[in-house]
Amino acid sequence: MIQIFSTGGTIDKVYYDANSEFEVGHSILPELLSESNIHEGYRIRELLRKDSLEMDETDRQQILEAVKACDSERVVITHGTDTMAETAAVLTQVPDKTIVLTGAMQPARMRRTDAVFNIGFAWSSVQLLPPGVYIAMNGEVFEAGSVRKNLKAQRFERA
């Protein structure tokens, strides 16, 4: 059984016309998994509903404790891309589990999003990778501690 934790981020953002801005909304994970033809073998638990720029060390500790406490050896975490690498670094404290963080550069509710691909890619990665902490984005897997987000290029790259 794969444990999936949602923490918010762009993948779950919704456009609120009255405010003319995006905000993190309810998780769209069940829809994304279904669209990826993934229908069983997982549990979903929402931990946070935050933009990753708003996350602090208390939030990262909450994620860490949830991962430590879950009985699954394979964990996927949806997370905002701006501080995904920082959370991945904190999660290196968890031995003997395969932990894959993923997210999206564009909200999943938008027509042109990388969310569906990234969820499917993370799903495959968590099943194939050895224990450790990884970021799986846009067809590449990076080990925690050796990755950064390139804001200008809007992609992840080796640090």
From TrEMBL:
Transmembrane portions of the chain: none
Pfam families attached to this UniProt entry: Asparaginase (PF00710)
GO terms of molecular function: asparaginase activity
Active site feature: T10 (o-isoaspartyl threonine intermediate)
UniProt-annotated binding residues for substrate: S52, T81, D82
Domain L-asparaginase N-terminal: 2-150
InterPro entries for this protein: Asp/glu_Ase-like_sf, Asparaginase/glutaminase-like, L-asparaginase_N, L-asparaginase_N_sf
PROSITE patterns, per database record: ASN_GLN_ASE_3 (PS51732)
Official protein name in the record: Asparaginase
Native organism: Marinobacter salinexigens
